[in-house]
Amino acid sequence: MNKPSIVLAGLLIFSASALAVEHASPKPSNASVLPYSAEQTEQTFSKTVHGGVQHVVAKAADNVQVVKAIQSHLFKIAGDFRKGDFSVTERLHGADMPGLAQLKKAEPGDIRFDYKSLDNGAQIHYSSEYPKYVQALHEWFDAQASEHGATAIPGHNQHHLTPAE
C-alpha cells in the first residue's frame, strides 16, 4: 500500500468515527428541558396572519402543580425570546430547526412575544410586522407542530385567523 492510500484510508476511518460520535449525541429529551411532563399537557402552535399562538394547557385543569409549571416555563421563555435567547429551543430541537436562524437575527422589538396565563396553562402570542419574521415564525410553528403533534384545543383556532392578529 502506498502512502496516499494509507492517508486516504486513515481519513475515511477518522471521518466515519467522527460521524458516529456526532450521531451518538442525541438531542436532550423534553424531560431535561421542560419543568413538567409533556404527557400531562396539550400543546398547540396555531399560525396567525402576523405570526402565531402557542398554547400549553394541562390535560387535568385541576392539576395546579402542572398549571403553575406551564405558566412559569412559558413566562420565562417569552422573556428569553424577547432578549433573542432561543437556547432552550435550540437545545431541544437543534440549531437547524426551520425558521430558528432567522428568528435569532431579529432585533429587540422586531418580534413580539406576549405571554398570557390561562386558567389551565399559558400561551405566548408571537407577532411581527416584518414579513421575513412572520415567515420564520410560520416555519418554526410548522416544525414545532410536526415534532410535538398537531393536537387541536377546541375553540382556540378560529379566533386567530383574522388580520387583527
Q: What features would you highlight for this structure?
A:
single chain; 165 residues; alpha+beta; four-stranded antiparallel beta sheet; 18% strand; disordered C terminus
Topology:
Elements: H1 3-24, H2 30-33, E1 41-48, E2 51-58, H3 64-82, H4 87-93, H5 100-105, E3 112-118, E4 121-127, H6 131-148
Protein name: Aspartate carbamoyltransferase
Signal peptide: 1-20
Keywords: Signal
Offer a quick outline of the entry.
With 165 residues, the chain is α+β, with helices and mostly antiparallel strands. The protein has helices at 3-24, 30-33, 64-82, 87-93, 100-105, 131-148, and strands at residues 41-48, 51-58, 112-118, 121-127. It has a four-stranded antiparallel beta sheet, with helices on one face.
H/I helix tally: 6
Oligomer: single chain
Compute the gyration radius: what is it? 20 Å
Major β-sheet annotation: 4 strands, antiparallel
- Terminal Cα span: 68 Å
Looking across the biggest beta sheet, what order are the strands in?
Answer: 1-2-4-3
Number of strands: 4
Pick out the low-confidence regions. Answer: 7-29, 152-165
